[in-house]
Structures are given as structure tokens and as C-alpha cells.
Design brief:
It is a single chain. The protein has helices at about 10-20, 45-60, 75-90, 105-115, 130-135, 150-165, 215-225, 240-245, 270-280, 295-300, 305-315, 325-340, 535-540, and strands at about 30-35, 60-65, 100, 120-125, 175, 190-195, 210, 230, 255-260, 345, 345, 350-355, 365-370, 380-385, 385-390, 410-415, 420-425, 435-440, 455-460, 460, 465-475, 500-510, 520-525, 525-530, 545-550. It is α/β, with parallel strands linked by helices and about 550 residues long. The protein contains 13 helices and 25 strands. Helix 2 crosses helix 11 (about 305-315), helix 7 crosses helix 8 and helix 11 crosses helix 12 (about 325-340). InterPro entries: aa-tRNA-synth_I_CS, Gln-tRNA-synth, Gln/Glu-tRNA_Ligase, Gln_tRNA_ligase_bac, Glu/Gln-tRNA-synth, Glu/Gln-tRNA-synth_Ib_cat-dom, Glu/Gln-tRNA-synth_Ib_codon-bd, Rbsml_bL25/Gln-tRNA_synth_N. It catalyses: tRNA(Gln) + L-glutamine + ATP = L-glutaminyl-tRNA(Gln) + AMP + diphosphate. It is found in: Cytoplasm. Its EC number is 6.1.1.18.
């Protein structure tokens, strides 16, 4: 540990610094990130990852990655692999090997026997319904199970028979013997072990009894020498049980549990169970759909690890709950990409333009900056030719007041190129506009025209060597600020029907024939767009996902 830790930025750092100063903590700070492998990580987990690894880094300690794999029926290797990839992508390295709660199943079992032998646990045969009835309510105490005073030898014998597979699922459970009248319901003789005949992804069929999370968590922390067990606020009421377990076994150490507020983000769902429902009901294209708030989905959309870490730093760590505005997350990615993203032009909805006074057999190579505020990123080349494409939305036949784009007999500058004036509108048999005939001003490359003023600047590409591509316009998955708050309906009722708009046949400048795959582009005047490698391989041409618009359109 370094002699002087970095300046504290949150109350957890303050608590640790205070403990160090008072001598209440000595030695290395050890934290852990303990996800359940029953789904993909989401943006809320990103906050926990940044906190746990960040605290360890601040105090020159280490952070373990441990999978809480006590529920084999809902877990899979797919989730384990995805979680490891997400942590690494965010830029963190865990201490030593990946750990699993299942690594400690033997120890957990022996500690359970120790509790039985001390008269601190018993085997109970109440059904789930009966147990709920005996538990009591928030205002009324529970009542003791008729099996609570079962002799130690009998409970020990039954527990070993549970282990040996002599009872059916749900027939018996092992419960802690604490206090059925406790005002904290978590302390009313909670279940420690239940019978589950299910193959485990790490231990196979060795076990048919599995420990509960509230029992596994403190022991796993103690087995790993965790000093600070950082949990979200919903575990605050579980802390007395965490401490009770460790106080009543021969635990190798006593970690300190500290709770912080979880991330709640508007227009978003961060329940893995509900995200899984979106996947299972085919409302999204898998866990890594770019509309999903999963880390893998955000990565595929074009979010950068730097932007997610910056966002987590912006929202801070505190004890107070509350909801963070999605605009903060979008601000973080805009800030990062504005500084680093290469620029390019892409015409989303191509409209043909013919420059009637430009030779059909002539082309020019124009040079534009890769990043106008960063000359060190160099220049890019685009082709000027007689036939160009502009975006249909940049032309109207009847220009409204203060119109800053193209209209009949009005002029605009093409980004990095010449000024042109629209002279004729060409329609097909159905009356749809299919072409604009324009004249360019050869004296306006890099200089203002004499005698008139262009309406504005629009983007364009050449027909001759532009790249055919598809565009996925991704937006917020939900159109309700709090999709989970509808007491009468279902959160799925608030799925945004415009969360994905697919544009086929867009045209991008020639440099995007082989697009970058590590950082989104800023498509000038449109937003930030990331090449989707998976979809590009399937389509045989570039496919770009919109990461975020240039400005907050939802704020309006």
C-alpha cells in the first residue's frame, strides 16, 4: 500500500482513510466484484466495477473477480465469459485467477455443520407456504418453526442425508437459528441451504444442496481476505446477517460491509430478470443489442470504456438514492468522442445532384481535416465530380423563414468543396423528386462567393466513389422516463417503437470502404456512428450503428 492514498472523492474512500489513520485497518486493501453469472452486466454494474477496482487502485490494493454461482439453474458459461470480457474491456485487471463461490462449497458445507453443532442452525421441514406464514410481517413478529428445537444430532444427520441426495427438492432446508421476533425480517431464521438437483457449471453433479447468497457472501469474502465488501443499498438490511454468520463460525477474518446507492437511470431498465425478458421475447436482438443498457450492448453501439468510466466518476458514490438523467451518460460519450473521433461524411437518405456546368469526365481530389480541432490527425481525401449525393432532408421546394439549406434558386456550400445553386428539380412518374440539377461556382473553393451569400453548409459525397452502407439509427429503448413505474401496465408497454430505424442504401465517403472498428466516426452534421463488425460481415458492406446524436434531442 502506498504511504499516502490519492485524494478521496467519495464517502467510502473517506471511511477507509479514517480507519487507516486510526489504526483500525492495517495491511493491504482488498475488494471484490462479485456478479451472479445469470445474465450480462449492465450500466449499473459498470458503476460497481469502477468503484471496487477504483478503491483498490486508490489504496494500492487489489480487487478480486468472484462469480456468485450458487444458483446453477439460472447460470451459464456464456454469462461468465461475457462478464470477464466486460471487466477487461472497461480497463481493469483482477487479482490472480478468477474466483467462484463454488470454490468454497466444501468450506461452506463444513461451516454449516459447525453452526449446527453450536446449536446455531437446524434442519426444517416446513413447506415454502408454511415458512412464509411463520415468518410474520413488518409489523408482527414471526413464530418459531416446530423443528427449531430439533436435537443437534438429528439436524446433523438430516443435513448429511440432504447432502447425500436422500430427500427431494424442497423437502428440507437448513436454517439459521437467530430470532423469529427480530424487527429485521432477514434475521428471522433465514435459510442457509436448500436442496437442488441441478448440474453446476463448475462442480458438475457433486452437490445436490446449494448455499444461499446471504450465507455464501460473507464466508467467500472471509476466505479471500476481503477487507471492504462494497454492496448496493438493498444489502444494508442484510448486513446484520452478514456479520452474524462470520461471528458464529471460525472465520479467517471479518470483512467490513459498506453500502452505497445503486445506479438508477431514467428511460432504462437495469433488472437482469427484465432484461432477460426482452431477450427471451425477441424484443431485442440478444443481450448485446445496441439498445440494451448492457455493457456489451453499449460497446457494440460505440460507447468507449473511457466514456463509461467518466460517467461513473461524474455521478459519484453516495448513500442517497435517486435517478440519474440519461443525458449525463450521453454527455459523457459526446465529450469523449468529440475530442477523439475522426470526421467523415455520410449521406443517410441520398438525393442525386448533377452539376450541369461541371465536366462529366472530370474529377477533383479535395482535402479535408480528419479532425478540425486536431491537425495532428492529418487529412482525408474526398472526390468532387459532376454527380453527387446530398441528404433529402437538406432540400425543400418552399423554403421556410431562416432556412439554412438548399432550395430552388438558392445556394449552399458543400462541406470542404464549392458553392452550388439549385436550378431545376427532376421528378419521376409518380412525382417523387429523384434529382436536382445545380450549377457550381468554380471560384468558391475555400473562399466566399462574390455578390451573393450561401444559405449554409451541407454534407455530400461523390457518386463515383462513395461507399454503399446501411445505417442503424438507435435511440432510447423506452419512451417512458420511468418504464418500471407503471403500476397498472407492464414495462414492455413502454418499449419505444422508434428505438431502431434502419436506413438502407446510405452513401459514405470513400475512406469508409474499410472503416475503423475501434472508435466511432463523427458523421458530420449527423452524430457519432460505430461500425458494427458482426452486421458488416453478414451484409458484405459497412453497417454503422448510431452511438449518439450530436446534441440532446430528448431534452427538447
Amino acid at each position: 500500500m502506498s504511504a499516502e492514498p490519492k485524494k478521496a472523492h467519495n464517502f467510502i474512500q473517506n471511511l477507509i482513510e479514517d480507519a487507516l489513520a486510526k489504526g483500525e485497518h492495517t495491511g493491504q486493501v482488498v475488494t471484490r466484484f462479485p456478479p451472479e453469472p445469470n445474465g450480462y452486466l449492465h450500466v449499473g454494474h459498470a458503476k460497481s466495477i469502477c468503484l471496487n477496482f477504483g478503491i483498490a487502485d486508490t489504496f494500492s490494493g487489489v480487487c478480486n473477480l468472484r462469480f456468485d454461482d450458487t444458483n446453477p439453474e439460472k447460470e451459464s458459461q456464456e454469462y461468465i465469459d461475457a462478464i470477464k470480457e466486460d471487466v477487461e474491456w472497461l480497463g481493469y485487471t483482477w487479482n490472480g485467477d478468477v474466483r467462484y463461490a463454488s470454490d468454497y462449497f466444501d468450506a461452506l458445507y463444513h461451516f454449516a455443520e459447525e453452526l449446527i453443532e453450536k446449536g446455531k442452525a437446524y434442519v426444517c421441514a416446513l413447506t415454502a407456504e408454511e415458512m412464509a406464514e411463520y415468518r410474520g410481517t413488518l409489523t408482527e413478529p414471526g413464530k418459531n418453526s416446530p423443528y427449531r428445537d430439533r436435537p443437534v444430532e438429528e439436524s446433523l444427520k438430516l443435513f448429511r442425508e440432504m447432502r447425500d441426495g436422500k430427500f427431494e427438492n424442497g423437502e428440507l432446508v437448513l436454517r439459521a437459528k437467530i430470532d423469529m421476533a427480530s424487527p429485521n425480517i432477514n434475521m428471522r431464521d433465514p435459510i442457509l441451504y436448500r436442496i437442488r438437483f441441478a448440474e453446476h457449471h463448475q462442480t458438475g453433479n457433486k452437490w445436490c444442496i446449494y448455499p444461499m447468497y446471504d450465507y455464501t457472501h460473507p464466508i467467500s469474502d472471509a476466505m479471500e481476505g476481503i477487507t471492504h465488501s462494497l454492496c448496493t443499498l438493498e444489502f444494508e438490511d442484510h448486513r446484520p446477517l452478514y456479520e452474524w454468520v462470520l461471528e458464529n463460525i471460525t472465520a479467517p477474518c471479518q470483512p467490513r460491509q459498506i453500502e452505497f446507492a445503486r445506479l438508477n437511470l431514467n428511460y432504462t431498465i437495469t433488472s437482469k430478470r427484465k432484461l432477460k425478458r426482452l431477450v427471451d421475447e425477441n424484443l431485442v436482438d440478444g443481450w448485446n443489442d445496441p439498445r440494451m443498457p448492457t455493457i456489451s450492448g453499449m460497446r457494440r453501439r460505440g460507447y468507449t470504456p473511457e466514456s463509461l468510466r467518466a460517467f461513473c466518476d461524474m455521478i459519484g458514490v453516495n448513500k442517497a438514492g435517486g435517478t440519474v438523467d440519461m443525458g449525463m451518460l450521453e454527455f459523457a460519450i459526446r465529450e469523449d468522442l468529440n475530442a477523439r473521433s475522426p470526421r467523415a461524411m455520410c449521406v443517410m437518405r441520398p438525393l442525386k445532384v448533377t452539376l450541369t456546368n461541371y465536366p462529366a469526365d472530370k474529377t477533383e481530389t479535395l482535402s479535408l481535416p480528419v479532425h478540425p480541432q486536431n491537425p495532428g490527425m492529418g487529412q482525408r481525401e474526398v472526390t468532387w465530380s459532376q454527380t453527387l449525393f446530398i441528404d433529402r432532408e437538406d432540400f425543400v421546394e418552399e423554403a421556410p423563414r431562416k432556412w439554412k439549406r438548399l432550395a430552388p434558386e438558392q445556394a449552399v456550400r458543400l462541406r470542404g468543396g464549392y458553392v452550388m445553386t439549385c436550378k431545376e428539380v427532376v421528378r419521376d412518374a409518380s412525382g417523387e423528386i429523384v434529382e436536382l440539377r445545380c450549377e457550381y461556382d468554380p471560384a468558391t473553393l475555400g473562399v466566399n462567393p462574390e455578390g451573393y451569400k450561401p444559405n449554409g453548409v451541407i454534407h455530400w459525397v461523390s457518386e463515383a466513389d462513395s461507399v454503399d452502407c446501411d445505417i442503424n439509427l438507435y435511440d432510447r429503448l423506452f419512451n417512458h422516463e420511468f418504464p418500471d413505474s407503471d403500476k397498472e401496465g407492464d414495462f414492455l408497454d413502454h418499449v419505444n417503437p422508434q428505438s431502431l430505424v434502419v436506413l438502407k442504401g446510405a452513401r459514405a465517403e470513400k475512406g469508409l470502404a474499410t472503416p475503423l472498428t475501434d472508435l466511432p466516426y463523427q458523421f458530420e452534421r449527423e452524430g457519432y456512428f460505430f461500425c458494427d463488425q458482426e452486421l458488416t460481415a453478414k451484409a458484405g458492406k459497412p453497417v454503422f450503428n448510431r452511438t449518439v446524436t450530436l446534441r440532446d434531442s430528448w431534452g427538447k
